[in-house]
Amino acid sequence: MTRDDGRSGPSSPPPFDLTAEPWLTVQLLNGGEREVSLREVFAQAGTIARLSGDVPTQDFALLRLLLAILHDTLEGPADVEEWAQLWEAEDPFAAVPEYLDEHRARFDLCHPATPFFQVARLSNGKDEVFPLNRLVADVPNGDPFFTTRFPGVERLSFAEAARWLVHAHAHDTAGIKTGVLDDPRAKGGKAYPLGTAWAGMLGGVTAEGTSLKETLLLNLIAAEDFPPPGRAPDLPAWRREPDGPGEGDLRHRPTGLCDLYTWQSRRVRLQADHDGVFGALLTYGDPLAPRNKQKLEPMTGWRRSRTQEKKHGEQLVYMPREHDPERAAWRGLAALLGTDTRPQETGARGEPAEALQPGLVHWLARLRNDGALPDEKMVRFRTYGTVYGTQQSVVDEIVADEVTMAVVLLGESDRRLGVCAVDAVARADDAVDALGRLAHDLVLATVANDKRRVQGNDRTVAEISQDQARDRAYGELDGHFRTWLAAIRPGNDVQELSATWQTTVRRELLRLARELLAAAGNRAWTGRTVKLKDGGEQWINSASAERRFRLALTKALPHTRPAPPPAIPDGAATSVRAN
Questions:
Q1: Are residues 165 and 313 in the same domain?
Q2: Are 542 and 524 in contact (CB under 8 A)?
Q3: Last residue of a domain, one of 233, 253, 284
Q4: N vs C: which end of the chain shows fewer Cβ within 10 Å?
Q5: Four-residue CA torsion sign, 322, 423, 378, 34
Q6: What kind and span of H or E run contains 178?
Q7: CB atoms within 10 A of CB 260
Q8: pLDDT digit string (tens) for 29-82?
Q9: Chain centroid to CA 577: how far?
Q10: Residues of the chain scoring pLDDT < 50
């Protein structure tokens, strides 16, 4: 028996039309969650708070998919003026339903000839069922015990499989994969490493508004800010000829944001029946090197790489700036805002910048400068990243954080508030360093064998104590900084803002210092002689360590100079007094 749509047999999967079937998980403004179709997500965007996928990086990949639909539907926006009209429109996505109707066949997850984001009849030449673990990022290969899906995922609904399919094209691991027929790169039934999927190379950044409607518009960058690199039309994956096995024709590609946001980093075929998806054949698709893509990819910061310059014999190479999983988003504010309050250590005037802010942030700054966004408009910057391990063949960690601020901080004509915020981070860094040094010195004053290496670690006891103190300090300051940053408004006095923040930092670090000094006890008060790197010796105890800490704290936080500390009675354990 053959169906009209080309499907045959009772076990063949039914159509799963992503334009009509609910599959995108969203959080509503009222706090509830539900699944919606592509048609619904645009129609109801004003009542939806945000995408709420299975993992944060899935939200990043799916948002880019929705943006590709919008860019292609609108054929723009061309400039800030067109964008402003969308921002003010009651229904800026009114044209999307007709677009989805036109391309509906290419959004069928189970279509026999052109399945969405897949290659029909992709095969390794054997009748095998391939485990879904390689598709689902929260089931780490080789570590099935560290997941709620132990020992693995046996079956997925069509909705969940569609979400993970989009995620795989964006964040899939590297490593050896299954070789498929007609892929000239396959050798001995294996496909050898070609790197992670595109978004996995990025330190992803998106802007979030008060609803998904605002979020989509804030990230919808005008063509004049990110123009297509060539004359070829910028098309998303569903408007191109279906891919086959192997690498496609990548000359003059990516052709723009539509192409990039739907980049087919992998070749995939879902194995499904009437009840859902039970397997996934996944191998390499179109590789994309991240070198010098800053004029094409707006959702990441960039760093200059002299290593890559030397490797490729190029004068200037920028690589995506990845997120550090141990560093909160607010601590990277200088990279986000493109504002550095500290002088460059090396380099002459006119040299290329060592870092570039995300193009998205530059776009939002332009909207503010051109009056399309009011200064007081609040934007939540969300950060996303994937940390890979073992030659990028497994996912070790997923990075996700957020930081909220008014768009006035992005202004390019008046950078005082932005500089103030970045300087606040720098001051906090210096103050935390002072606390870390106090913890280090207290160990030196207490432990005779401070040079001993800790088993399984290459650091000394003093170095570990220093890092622990720093980590706790950043943890204590985290909420305070986010609250302080989110409260900045147009017209605020930068001196007053700085004083408020530095006073908070001083108060919190003095409290932590008191705890360190109390824990060190009388042995640290007595102290001991410590050998210096230059061969000399120095007597160190808690009193001298505290003195250095206070001097460093005063230098780091000049707007809150305290009165001299009171004298400490002989024989008494030292303590830091709040000023």
A1: no
A2: yes
A3: 284
A4: N
A5: positive
A6: strand 177-178
A7: 23
A8: 999 999 999 999 999 999 999 999 999 999 999 999 999 999 999 999 999 999
A9: 40
A10: 1-7, 140-148, 150, 341-348, 450, 453-456, 563, 569, 571-579
Query: 249 and 118 in one domain?
Result: yes
Bond before 229 cis per omega within 30 degrees: no
302-331 pLDDT, tens digit per residue, is 999 999 999 999 999 999 999 999 899 999
* DSSP H/E element including 119: none
Residue whose tokens read 């054949």: 281
DSSP label at 17?
B
Q: How far apart are CA 207 and CA 366, in angstroms?
A: 14
Q: At 310, list the tokens.
A: 């030397």
Asked if residue 567 is part of any domain, the answer here is no
Q: Examine the domain organization and report whether 136 and 244 are in the same domain.
A: yes
Report the DSSP beta bridge partners of residue 208: 380
Pairwise CA distance, residues 54 & 2, whole Å:
36
Residue 245 near residue 121, CB atoms below 8 Å: no
Residue 38 shares a structural domain with residue 142: yes
Give per-residue burial for 3-30: e unless 16+ CB within 10 Å, then b: eeeeeeeeebbebbbbbbbbbbbbebee
How far apart (Å, rounded) are the C-alpha atoms in residues 135 and 204? 21
- Confirm whether 9 is domain-assigned: no
Rounded CA-CA distance 448/372 in Å is 63
Residues 6+ apart with CB under 8 A from 394: 140, 141, 142, 143, 173, 175, 388
Is the CB of residue 541 less than 8 Å from the CB of residue 524?
yes
Interstrand relation of 378-389 and 204-208 (parallel, antiparallel or unpaired): antiparallel
- Cα–chain-centroid distance for residue 88? 29
Contact between 127 and 271 under an 8 Å Cβ cutoff? The reply is no
Q: Reduced to 3 states, what is the DSSP secondary structure of residue 508? A: helix
Domain containing 464 equals 416-560
Tokens of 16: 């799963």
Does residue 533 share a domain with residue 421? yes
